[in-house]
Amino acid sequence: MIHMHSNKNRVVSATFVAAYLSISVASTTGADETAHQVLPIVEQIQHADYAGDQAALQKGYDDLKLFVEDQRLASRIRYWRGFAQWRRAINGFNDSVDPNELKQDLKTALDEFRIAMEKDPKFVDAKVGTISCLGYLAFMNRKDPARAKELVGQIIPLAREATDAEPDNPRLIWVRGPILWNAPPERGGGKDKAIENYQRGLEVSSKIKASDDALQPSWGKPELMMSLAYSYQNMKSPDTNAAERYAREALEIVPYWHYVRDILLPQILAAKAKAQ
Predict the structure, then answer these.
(1) Which CATH homologous superfamily contains domain 39-166?
(2) What does residue 222 show for φ and ψ, rounded to 5 degrees?
(3) 3-state SS class at 77
């Protein structure tokens, strides 16, 4: 009797394991299928960002709405929706878009990044996007010191958390640049410190291996080059040669980058011609 009962248990266990495995495989397959559908939209968003294509950024944000209920990939999908709105705002600053529209894009981005952080509290890149959006809003509220101070107050603990978790994240290093650039030397900031920060970001970005997860953010290297070009151009004594070099290196990676190709590099070359 005992022997037979044992066999029956084995049959039940085997059935349970088979059922569990089939669910597990189906779950993985489902996540893979969603990722397969989402990836081209993410690539479109990144291309639109560099191209300065505001309509395509909005389209990418809208197209990802279809996938927000997928719990396995929700944090990444929310991140890329936030990214699309964040970059609409950054591009908008460069192309003189209505400030109210920029504020709305930043607030929408913050909502998406907040959900991404709730879905995956260890997801540092969602914190990176949040820090940058709060920084832009603080800048836009600089005539309202109380509001600006409140926004900066939200940045400080997030920046600390993100730095403790991933000090060598190139995207985190990139968004810390403007904080250093605008901070006084007595608080550890200044233009030289910002440039050192970007240089370190470039060094670490060259050593990072690409992630197997295609939805994991991996941008950063050309952004660091762009920021170095801008920084050298906007020093008290501009180094236009260094600025031009970094701008051209960024364009080697992203030849169609609207801001660098059509705005920043022409400014650098004009300053260089004037100096000569």
Answers:
(1) Tetratricopeptide repeat domain (1.25.40.10)
(2) -65, -30
(3) helix
**CB neighbours of 145 closer than 8 A, spacing ≥ 6?**
none
What one-letter code names the amino acid at 119? Answer: K
Q: Name the residue ranges covered by the structural domains of the chain.
A: 39-166
User: What distance in Å separates the CA atoms of residue 276 and residue 272, rounded to the nearest whole number?
Assistant: 6
Rounded-to-integer distance, Cα 149 and Cα 263, Å: 31
Distance (Å, rounded) from C-alpha 265 to C-alpha 276? 17
pLDDT tens per residue across span 24-80:
454 555 678 889 999 999 999 999 999 999 999 999 999 999 999 999 999 999 999
Residue with tokens 């197997």: 212
Q: Where are the beta strands (DSSP E) in the chain?
A: none
> Global pTM?
0.88
Handedness of CA 159, 165, 169, 171 (dihedral sign): negative
Residue of 37, 21, 39 whose CA lies nearest to 212: 39
pLDDT digits (tens, 9 = 90+) for 92-110: 998 888 999 999 999 999 9
